[in-house]
């Protein structure tokens, strides 16, 4: 039986930049780029998290060897610090200083926000941050303009107790809410007899429970009160989907105001181990490609990359990345927009797609209003991660910018997407030929994986 709570209520090789007190060691940057080029492949390592005065970790020996190799490839030793790069660096730093470090007060539109959250083994972050952040956000939005819907899915820790404490605090503030605590664990889900949907025969010869359909059901359950409220004439303008992340109310207001509020979806940028972004499964650039690198400026597509460098709303095909705002209307349409996995018959070809990507493929507003990642909204899965990407001063140092620009170029010049994407396309084509009804609108979401639910999480097969 599910338990629910309802209620209302920064010598010659050093160049000094006018916009920063940090100096850029061009030789060190060059050495790092040389090693990157030498090791270039479809799995190039990400750029190091280099802060002011930090070592690049490149030895003299490897530097000499890599410089010789790079010279054979036609790259000049001082290329990263040529005038054009310094101009671009100056412009990016100026943009950051004008935009990113300014605390922005957001006059609130009169919008009603439905906040949806799914929790599993999240007691620590709930007690350390998340519950307080949700309570503060609810107070700032106002009890009449917010509804909190939480679905907890059989946690092994005391997430249920943490959510009961959150419920009590929201009740004190008269915040309307629905908190559902499910006693059904992963182990019990797996032990159940295989159903008609959400199961796949794995290479191990067993019919096993797929992870994504399971997560989709949990997310859809967090949306159930939205429909019940609509029957009572209570409607909302936006849905705010929250992961177990560290955020502030101002982050939410910034996200809601992405592209002046005109979007099919607006996402934050999430970090667990900065500078590497976290949600690689759902993020796709404006052309539907995966990110070319796990660090700034992330993208292969020129339009997505340009926006990221200029701290503008980044056009993407899909994103999730910790925190997402979407108009509520498609979720109340007939038929309503819902989270889903790819069909079981397609998953049998050793393929998978994130429900948080497929939702954008299915959303009719995606092509009309666009999906955006907001580089001004950076959340973390720990307090340390949040602080690292939201410092008092610029979150990107001059050295980080130069390295990012050049590593991004090298990856775009030396890696290609067609081989990986052709493999996926061929598998989907083989599946499509099996039946005229076999169609998948979210092909850009599909990856070469099979993900199965496990009693303590999930695993690849």
TrEMBL record:
This is Uncharacterized protein. Pfam families: CAP59_mtransfer. Residues 39-76 are annotated as: Disordered. InterPro entries: Mannosyltransferase_CMT1 (IPR021047). It comes from Penicillium canariense. Residues 51-69 have a biased composition (Low complexity).
């Amino acid at each position: 039986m599910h338990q629910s709570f309802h209620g209302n209520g920064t010598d010659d090789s050093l160049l000094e930049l006018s916009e920063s007190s940090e100096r850029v060691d061009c030789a060190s940057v060059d050495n790092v780029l040389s090693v990157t080029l030498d090791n270039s492949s479809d799995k190039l390592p990400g750029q190091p998290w280099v802060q002011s005065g930090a070592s690049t970790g490149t030895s003299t020996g490897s530097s000499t060897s890599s410089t010789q190799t790079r010279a054979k490839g036609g790259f000049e030793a001082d290329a990263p610090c040529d005038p054009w790069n310094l101009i671009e660096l100056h412009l990016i730093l100026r943009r950051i200083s004008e935009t990113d470090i300014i605390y922005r007060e957001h006059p609130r539109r009169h919008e009603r926000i439905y906040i949806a959250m799914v929790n599993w083994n999240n007691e620590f972050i709930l007690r350390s941050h998340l519950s307080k952040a949700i309570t503060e956000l609810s107070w700032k939005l106002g009890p009449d303009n917010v509804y909190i819907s939480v679905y907890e899915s059989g946690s092994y820790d005391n997430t249920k107790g943490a959510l009961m404490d959150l419920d009590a605090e929201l009740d004190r503030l008269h915040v309307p809410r629905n908190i559902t605590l499910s006693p059904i664990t992963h182990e019990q889900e797996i032990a159940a007899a295989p159903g008609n949907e959400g199961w796949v025969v794995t290479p191990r010869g067993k019919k096993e429970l797929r992870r994504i359909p399971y997560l989709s059901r949990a997310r859809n359950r967090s949306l159930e009160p939205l429909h019940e409220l609509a029957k009572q004439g209570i409607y909302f303008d936006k849905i705010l989907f929250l992961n177990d992340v560290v955020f502030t109310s101002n982050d939410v207001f910034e996200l809601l105001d992405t592209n002046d509020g005109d979007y099919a979806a607006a996402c934050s940028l999430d970090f667990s181990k900065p500078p590497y972004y976290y949600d690689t499964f759902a993020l796709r650039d404006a052309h539907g490609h995966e990110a070319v690198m796990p660090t700034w400026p992330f993208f292969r597509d020129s339009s997505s990359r340009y926006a990221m460098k200029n701290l503008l709303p980044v056009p993407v095909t899909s994103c999730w990345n910790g925190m997402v705002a979407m108009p509520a209307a498609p979720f109340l349409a007939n038929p309503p927009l819902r989270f889903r996995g790819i069909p079981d018959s397609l998953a049998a070809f050793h393929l998978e797609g994130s429900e948080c990507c497929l939702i954008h493929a299915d959303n009719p507003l995606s092509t009309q209003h666009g999906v955006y990642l907001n580089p001004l909204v950076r959340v973390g899965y720990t307090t340390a991660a949040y602080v690292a990407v939201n410092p008092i001063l610029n979150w990107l140092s001059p050295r980080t910018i130069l390295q990012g620009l050049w590593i991004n170029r090298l990856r775009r010049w030396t890696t290609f997407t067609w081989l990986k994407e052709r493999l996926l396309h061929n598998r989907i084509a083989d599946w499509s030929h099996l039946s005229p009804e076999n169609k998948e609108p979210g092909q850009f979401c599909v990856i070469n994986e099979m993900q199965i639910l496990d009693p303590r999480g999930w695993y690849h097969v």
